């Protein structure tokens, strides 16, 4: 056994129990000493790229979730992961044979972390194999695909969750708590600026076939989803404008920069920016009649920083993916209910807005929405 | 003579000379001791409301500009001002008789600080009376009116300036200097959030007849103008969305909240918010390939605060209206050229964008612009 990993796992699990879930009544010291003996979600990761690696590392500190399998098209990566994470040969699959996971009683769930365009067929195959699915954002390329995935998981009686790590992030949840408690008054405005300067032009994110789109699919979805969870309503209209300055790098169907605006039933409006051509834009601003919240970074891997009209936000700093997997294990294994949904239906709502943004950008029209 | 006023005038004038115009080579101490004996712009203020009062107070610290006359419809206000500012009876006018200012050799210029809808006829009357005109923002209700005002002033051979106080503000000018020096790289994005929660529903700003519009005319114009001077280009397209939550307070033709987006020839985009229903929104954000500038407050009366990728902006804190009147006197009397234009043509450019924003909000269409 890897003692360093066990050590980290122990202390981080207790840190989470102590700082993030104080309501459990588990005191820090006591938790460290008491080994976890509850149910564990045994997870296979599909797609061993950089984000898959990040999730795998973060899961080493989970108590309720454990990396037990891999699915990859690259045999050398599988070997590396087997060695690093003690994964038995029988839990390793490739993209041709992973339907056989159906017959593997040692895997409970598959976390799909592949290029966007592959999510739809892969999630449906995992569902048909009878395993729970966690799927990275965006869940699919459009709402129709998303709906089919939700349907397939329902039919197979497996849970479908979307990798909304921010829905568990403590600063974010504190802002949502304050909003729900009326501390900002009536919500009037949300601004989300999300973007980065994308590098290597040959990566899958810039390949229409694999990415399905451009910045909006990849990073703009944080502003879109953020508008919904920060305002706490679903938008009723959307307008959008696309700007492309580099037609070489951003080919047909791959959006470089999209501005979009959302209108909400309560009268609030949102103004968002999604871009692949600006350095590290990661800012949220929520404005109400009585107060505000500012977050920057707002959705990066952390630490998230922010302040409200009442002062600096001082929530615990967590590893997003550790907390996400811990909580998702709780949802799948214990039927826990998150404050902000992370299920397939939530993913479909984002996709409906995303569809409307692309339609608005193309047509120049204001698109009415009913989520 | 009012010795306190003279004292303040002396020290502030020298402070401006020393801190804001170091290139004049006038040392602080020397300037304090050497009385100003250059030309002075003798100004009458038209409209003695709260902003007129602010300008009058600020002008007490000017060396090149002096308040010498008033134009008002309220005799009691005229009396108060006469007493307070030592204004002779012969320099006092009302809205019926102010054309007679033509025959008054002791007034050089009139600063029009009246409700928006009145600017057009009043500026034209002042021009016909042969006096230079400074006109508050927005210069007029639309570009057509603005163009007529520019034409009238040209014909009368008088100067027409618009009250763009930010065009002289040191933090703002430093950001413009850095941008021009390439310190932010290629400019990609500007965001301007400008608004406040408007109070008294009976004020002229909420009266369509006097205001000509709503928040966009009054406060949104700062974001519009800011987008132009921060990016350093004129927009080529505009889109806009209007939202009204309070139809009682914001009647037909008086906009409560407008979001607008601008596209620029160099590929930059701007995302702006103009509102009468949110508390003190006063934020600018300029983003380039290599750096950024953030300002908050960005256009309020000050002190302006900001930071760039190189650190906090630490320009001198000035009284905006003092500096503006000092510089405008220099423009009118000495032909000085400001870094960012403040003439009538500049005002018309803003009005063309404003016209397009209203058109875009109404039609839902992207409006092409050529300024």
TrEMBL record, chains A, B:
A GO molecular function annotation here is: nucleotide binding
Tell me where in this chain the GFO/IDH/MocA-like oxidoreductase domain is found.
175-293
Q: Which domain of life is it from?
A: Bacteria
Q: Which residues form the signal peptide?
A: none
Which parts of the sequence belong to the Gfo/Idh/MocA-like oxidoreductase N-terminal domain? 41-164
Q: What InterPro entries would the database entry show? A: Gfo/Idh/MocA-like_OxRdtase_N, Gfo/Idh/MocA_oxidrdct_glycsds, GFO_IDH_MocA-like_dom, Glc-Fru_OxRdtase_bac, NAD(P)-bd_dom_sf
Q: Tell me if Oxidoreductase is a UniProt keyword of this record.
A: yes
Query: Is the keyword Oxidoreductase assigned to this protein?
Result: yes
User: Which key words tag this protein in UniProt?
Assistant: Oxidoreductase
Provide the protein name: Gfo/Idh/MocA family oxidoreductase
């Amino acid at each position: 056994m890897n003692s360093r990993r066990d050590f980290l796992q122990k202390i981080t699990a207790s840190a989470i129990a102590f700082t993030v879930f104080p309501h459990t009544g588990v005191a820090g010291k006591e938790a460290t000493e008491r080994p976890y003996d509850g149910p564990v979600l045994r997870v296979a990761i599909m797609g061993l790229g950089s984000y898959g690696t990040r999730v795998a590392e973060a899961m080493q500190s989970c108590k309720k979730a454990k990396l037990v399998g891999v699915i990859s098209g690259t045999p050398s990566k599988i070997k590396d992961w087997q060695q690093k994470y003690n994964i038995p040969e029988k839990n390793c699959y490739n993209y041709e044979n992973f339907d056989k996971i159906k017959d593997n009683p040692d895997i409970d769930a598959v976390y799909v972390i592949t290029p966007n365009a592959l999510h739809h067929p892969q999630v449906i195959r995992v569902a048909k194999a009878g395993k729970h699915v966690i799927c990275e954002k965006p869940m699919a390329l459009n709402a129709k695909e998303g709906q089919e995935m939700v349907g397939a998981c329902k039919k197979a009686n497996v849970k479908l969750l979307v990798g909304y790590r921010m829905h568990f992030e403590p600063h974010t949840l504190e802002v949502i708590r304050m909003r729900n408690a009326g501390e900002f008054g009536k919500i009037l405005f949300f601004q989300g600026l999300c973007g980065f300067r994308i590098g290597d032009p040959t990566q899958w994110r810039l390949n229409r076939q694999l990415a399905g789109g451009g910045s909006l699919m990849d990073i703009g979805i944080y502003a879109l989803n953020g508008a919904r969870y920060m305002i706490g309503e679903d938008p009723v209209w959307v307008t959008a404008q696309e700007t492309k300055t580099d037609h070489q790098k951003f080919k047909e169907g791959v959006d470089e920069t999209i501005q979009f605006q959302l209108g909400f039933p309560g009268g609030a409006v949102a103004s968002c920016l999604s871009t692949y051509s600006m350095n590290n834009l990661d800012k949220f601003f929520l404005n109400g009649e009585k107060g505000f919240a500012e977050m920057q970074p707002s959705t990066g891997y952390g630490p998230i920083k922010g302040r409200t009209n009442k002062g600096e936000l001082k929530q615990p700093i967590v590893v997003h993916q550790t907390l996400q997997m811990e909580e998702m294990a709780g949802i799948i294994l214990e039927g826990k209910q998150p404050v902000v949904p992370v299920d397939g239906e939530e993913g479909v709502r984002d996709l409906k807005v995303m569809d409307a943004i692309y339609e608005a950008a193309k047509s120049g029209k204001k698109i009415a929405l009913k989520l």
